[in-house]
Structure formats: structure tokens, C-alpha cells
Amino acid sequence: AEIKNISFSYLEYDSIDDLDGLYIKLIEEAKKASEDAYAPYSGFRVGAAVLLESGKIIRGSNVENAAFPSGICAERTAMSYSVSNFPGDKPSAIAIAAMNGNNFTYTPVSPCGNCRQMITEEEFRNNREIKILLYGENRILVIENAASLLPLQFNKEALNLYHP
Ligand code: THU
Questions:
Q1: Does residue 118 have its Cβ closer than 6 Å to ligand 1?
Q2: Which ligand 1 atom is nearest residue 42's CA?
Q3: Residue 38 in contact with residue 72, Cβ under 8 Å?
Q4: Among 54, 90, 121, 146, which is most buried by a count of CB atoms within 10 Å?
């Protein structure tokens, strides 16, 4: 067998002020979205903000439910809204922030596997990288594209594979 290796690089910022103005704004919108989350069961309020090519910013938050699995994450709320309401306006970045109780988390929150899958679908079908900005009070991570967070991704190419 041959050993294969997958690795990726990302940026870590100590201060939000070192980011581009547009991305500072995007993170602020993600923080605003987390304030609007409906998360009475976990108390973990997550906010996402999707930046579209047009410059529009779409906010989404996690929406929980008494039937726990019926809840949805902030990232998928925001992505679904942008896909449904602004078709053709391709996402170019998504910022994510989260609050534990009334405080923003110290460490950045990373999207769950389900959300990575959905963000990657948009990235792949649009052939347009989606930058991922993960906010924490302590540091901010910037990842160039969603595919980096989902190595060996399952995507629609696989559905076209010929099976003898
Ligand atoms: N959650 C998100 O909204 N996004 C993430 O990236 C991680 C988890 C939500 C789901 C649930 O409502 C709460 O956070 C606790 O898991």
C-alpha cells in the first residue's frame, strides 16, 4: 500500500482588528445571529453569517426543538435561507460564532459534520471557494475553503460513478 497524506493550513488571528473590514462585519453579523438563536435546551446559541458574491449577508441561528433531533444548526439555517431566497448569488464566506449562556465562547466553534457536508455541497456545485471564519473571544480561525474541513468529501460526482 501507499501512504497518502492530506493536510491543510489556516490562519489564526489574535485580534479581530487584523481582519479585512468586510470579514469583521461578517463576524459581527454572526455574533448578532447567535443572540437571536432559539436554543432553550442546550443553552448553546450559535450564529452564522453567509456572505454572498453580491455583498449581501444572510444570518442564521440554531433553532432547537422539544423533539431534539428536529433542531437545526445555525450554519444550515443560514445556508438554506441563502440557497432558497438568493439562488445564483453564490456564497463566498461563512462566519460562525457561539454563546454559552450569555458569553461568546473563548475558543472558536467549528461546524459539525452535517454542516460541513452542506457547505461543501454549495462550494462544489458553484465551483467557488467558501471561506470559513470561526470566531472565538480568544482567537479567530480563517480557513480558505470548506473542502479543507472535509477531506475525501462525498459529493455529487460520486453519484455519477459507474459501477460495473
Ligand atoms: N450547533 C450549531 O448550531 N452549529 C454548530 O456548529 C455546532 C452545534 C447547535 C446545535 C444545537 O442546537 C446546539 O448547537 C448544541 O449542540
A1: no
A2: 15
A3: no
A4: 146
Best CA proximity match to 122, nearest among 33, 36, 24, 51: 51
Per run of 10 residues, the mean pLDDT along the chain (length 164 residues) is 97 98 98 98 98 98 98 98 98 98 97 98 98 98 98 93 70
**Phi, psi at residue 153, to the nearest 5°?**
-55, 150
Q: Is ligand 1 within 6 A of the CB of residue 105?
A: no
Residues in Cβ contact with 19 at an 8 Å cutoff, skipping those fewer than 6 apart: 13, 27, 133, 140, 142
pTM greater than 0.90: yes
Rounded CA-CA distance 46/88 in Å is: 26
Is 12 known to be catalytic? no
